[in-house]
């Protein structure tokens, strides 16, 4: 089936140095084009939405409401990848109960958007349940499609030059903020025999958290901060390619891309027991810890450091989270929507 798909996202998606959303968009688009799908990015100065079959918006964002309303008015199918944090559902529920009050709240507009969508793509079953329960999205339009991941299995040894020594190490790749919970990992591993590498910098919404982490790690030779590294940086690929353990210590995540990339490169995953990525088969038996339990964090990371490389886990991750697999799921969703016409 010939189809034309138009891609849009929120205004600052390509401004975030961490790059999770725009990397997801670029990789998904690239993989879909390999399948023969014609895809363009929305440009409000030149794009005519009527020329397309599907408008796919990455992130449920009320700034897109007018665009969605117009697309629906001219007969274009609308799909939203929700990219939703799955906490504070009680707040959403409160606004749902108040939705009949003539007050233009953000949540009221979000509910309006959801009622008009032809498809909603979520990254995890937990996010699907969240959208069903709190945004009242019907099962018939919900699809679970995990984020894809790059194979970052570079064996370039520049990481050892950056560390000044050739050692086994655990790795965390993420921006620094309270939700990411790097501080508890530092407390767990400071002045131990476990080398820990942090890649990422301060979140502009909470720049002081990074300073607090640096202060906590001061004088600890086993803790290393490499700052921001772009996704195509050879040092990042080297760090992923040689890590013994890959850690995600967050309280909440929509997905957890760095964990998948680390597993594909051969690292043993160690994950907060609160994260929805644990619902995927690749991670059903991995090491987990309570994000507030310093001793638990320490024990599980140390155990991971002495776990042998699991080649079956690597292949399972590559199969479940390849960009080709992700693109085929998107194509299936698009095709089903157009066949409903």
Short overview:
40% of the residues lie in helices and 15% in strands. With 341 residues, the chain is of the alpha/beta class.
Q: Can you characterise this structure?
A:
Helix content is 40%, strand content 15%. A six-stranded parallel beta sheet has the order 2-1-3-4-5-6. Strands 9-8-7-10-11-12 form a six-stranded parallel beta sheet, sandwiched between helices. It has helices at 20-34, 65-73, 89-97, 106-116, 125-135, 158-163, 182-189, 208-217, 234-242, 257-264, 294-305, 311-321, 323-339, and strands at residues 4-9, 38-41, 54-58, 77-81, 119-122, 142-144, 169-173, 195-199, 223-225, 245-248, 268-272, 287-289. Strand 10, helix 10 (257-264) and strand 11 form a beta-alpha-beta unit. The protein contains 13 helices and twelve strands.
CATH architecture of the largest domain: 3-Layer(aba) Sandwich
Largest sheet: 6 strands, parallel
Helix content: 25-40%
Coarse shape: globular
Q: What is the quaternary state of this protein?
A: single chain
- Main sheet: strand order: 2-1-3-4-5-6
Count of discrete alpha- or pi-helical segments spanning 4 or more residues: 13
pLDDT < 50 runs, ≥5 residues: none
Beginning-to-end CA distance, first to last residue:
13 Å
CATH superfamily of the largest domain: Glycogen Phosphorylase B
Average pLDDT works out at 92
Number of domains: 2
* Helix-strand makeup class: alpha/beta
> What order do the helices and strands follow?
EHEEHEHHEHEHEHEHEHEHEEHHH
Q: Which percent band covers the strand fraction?
A: 15-25%
CATH class of the largest domain: Alpha Beta
CATH topology of the largest domain: Rossmann fold
Radius of gyration computed on alpha carbons = 21 Å
Number of strands: 12
